[in-house]
Specification:
The protein is α/β, with parallel strands linked by helices. The strands form four sheets. Strands 2-1-3-4-8-7 form a six-stranded parallel sheet, sandwiched between helices. A two-stranded antiparallel ribbon has the order 5-6. The protein is built from eight helices and twelve strands. It folds into two domains: 173 residues, Rossmann fold; 57 residues, no CATH class. Helix 1 packs across helix 2. Helix 7 links the parallel strand 7 and strand 8.
Length: 236
C-alpha cells in the first residue's frame, strides 16, 4: 500500500467531522474520544469514557428518540467487537438517521496494543452486511475516504450506514500517554446521577477534552469512610 496514501486516524476523523453540521456524535472509549475532542470539541459530542461495547447502542437510542436528527457513532475496532450484537439490533430497527464509523487500527490501544480480531479474520463491514446493513464502506486509503464520508452524512435509508476505516496503528504504549482521566470530586453526602457537562482539561497531544457525568455514585453523609470514598471518586 502507498505509505503516503495510508490513513492517519486523526486526519481521518477530522475529515469525517468536517461537514457534520448539527449531527449528534457519540464516541467510543479511548482514542476515538480523544481524537474527536482534539479535532474539535463540540456541544453535540457525547464522549463515552467507559461502557466498552455500548457506543452503537447509545447512538441507536438517540437516533430512535430523535428521528429528525442525524446521529453519528465514532468508535474503534476493539470497542465494536465487544458490542457486535448492537449491529444486529441497529439493522433490525432500520433508523435512517444513524451512521456508524469504525476507526480500525487492528489493536486494543488502551490496554497495550494487543492485536484485535480484525487483524486476523474478522471483517466488521462484512458483519454489518450480514446483519442487514444496506449501505457499507471499507476505507483503506485516503482516496477512498470522501465517498465514505458522504455516505455517512448524506445518505437517506434504507436503514443505518456503516463505514470501517483502517488507520495506522500506533506503537505500543502511545495510545495511553497523556490521556485525560476525568477528575470528579464528590462532596460528602452528595448523590450524583446522569447529567450534563462535568469539566474540561488540556493534555499534550489530545487537546481539550470534555466529559459527561453518566453514572450514579453516592457518598455517605458522615463517618470515617467519607473522605476515603470521596478521594477514590476523585481519582477515577
Amino acid at each position: 500500500m502507498d505509505e503516503q496514501n495510508t490513513l492517519r486516524r486523526r486526519s481521518a476523523i477530522a475529515r469525517i467531522l468536517a461537514d457534520r453540521g448539527d449531527t449528534l456524535v457519540v464516541t467510543g472509549l479511548g482514542s476515538p474520544t480523544y481524537d474527536c475532542a482534539a479535532v474539535r470539541d463540540h456541544p453535540l459530542n457525547f464522549y463515552l469514557w467507559g461502557a466498552m461495547g455500548s457506543a452503537v447502542t447509545v447512538g441507536l437510542g438517540l437516533a430512535l428518540a430523535q428521528p429528525k436528527r442525524r446521529v453519528l457513532v465514532v468508535t474503534g475496532d476493539g470497542e465494536m467487537l465487544m458490542g457486535l450484537g448492537a449491529l444486529a439490533t441497529a439493522a433490525a430497527k432500520k433508523p435512517n438517521n444513524l451512521a456508524i464509523a469504525v476507526i480500525d487500527n487492528e489493536h486494543y490501544g488502551e490496554t497495550g496494543m494487543q492485536p484485535t480480531h480484525t487483524s486476523a479474520v474478522v471483517d466488521l463491514a462484512g458483519v454489518a452486511i450480514t446483519c442487514g446493513f444496506r449501505q457499507t464502506a471499507t476505507v483503506r486509503q485516503v482516496s477512498e475516504l470522501d465517498a465514505a464520508v458522504a455516505m455517512l452524512h448524506t445518505a437517506n435509508g434504507p436503514g443505518a450506514r456503516f463505514a470501517e476505516s483502517f488507520v495506522r496503528a500506533r506503537p505500543a504504549g502511545v495510545a495511553t500517554v497523556g490521556r485525560t482521566v476525568p477528575q470528579v470530586a464528590f462532596p460528602p453526602g452528595a448523590a450524583r446521577s446522569a447529567g450534563r457537562l462535568k469539566g474540561q482539561t488540556q493534555r499534550p497531544g489530545f487537546g481539550r477534552l470534555t466529559w459527561f457525568e453518566g453514572w450514579s455514585i453516592r457518598t455517605p453523609c458522615s463517618g470515617s469512610n467519607t473522605s476515603t470514598r470521596a478521594s477514590t471518586a476523585t481519582s477515577l
